[in-house]
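Sequence in, structure out. Go.
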Amino acid sequence: MDSSYNSSSTKPLYRGTQIVWYILGLLEALLAFRFVLKLLGANSAAGFTSFIYASTKLFVAPFLNVFRISQVAGSIFEWTTLLAMLVYWLVALGIIRLFFMSKTVSTPEAAAKLNNENK
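Output:
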């Protein structure tokens, strides 16, 4: 068995990545609901629709003026929600990469990885 899996940092690293993926999954699901509800022209006065719009407003706010909103007969194709989903996914990947940078590695393992990067 690889000695890097027996490191004292392995379990916290695993938990940290699980937490990041869970939060991302929850956020992406809420944003997907928002996208579909807008696309289908859902009644914004309905409880569920109102909840989804209110809970995702903070997360789409930085992207609201990036693209024009495409609207046809009450249906809204909200490009900004798709952009937000992409950006948050990339941020989560970046956080996971940072976690892995803190992983303890042995000297031979570090040397092998450096040799692979220099090829």
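Check: Residues 9-117 form one domain. The CA atoms of residues 14 and 71 lie 43 Å apart.
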